């Protein structure tokens, strides 16, 4: 069985946040992301309705 060593990569601020952020901080962040995504999707739906 061949075992390849993993190449170390530089941590990013996001990966540090995911690893070290509190549950409260993560929840707040992902709630914001979800709300913004829903708003964008609703805008696309309204735009597509206007094109009919």
Topology:
Elements: H1 13-20, H2 23-50
Keywords:
52 residues, mainly alpha, 69% helix, elongated
Name the poorly predicted regions: none
Biggest sheet character: none
Order of helices and strands: HH
Over the alpha carbons, how many angstroms does the gyration radius reach?
19 Å
Assign an overall shape: elongated
* Residue share in helix: 55-70%
* End-to-end distance: 59 Å
What does this protein structure show overall?
It is a single chain. The chain has a domain at 22-50. 69% of the residues lie in helices and 0% in strands. It contains two helices and no strands. The radius of gyration is 19 Å and the shape is elongated. The termini are far apart.
In short:
Helix content is 69%, strand content 0%. The protein contains 2 helices and no strands.
């Amino acid at each position: 069985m061949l075992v390849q060593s993993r190449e170390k990569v530089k941590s990013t601020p996001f990966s540090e946040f995911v690893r070290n952020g509190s549950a409260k901080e993560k929840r707040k962040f992902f709630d914001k992301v979800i709300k913004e995504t829903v708003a964008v999707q609703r805008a696309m739906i309204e735009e597509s309705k206007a094109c009919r």
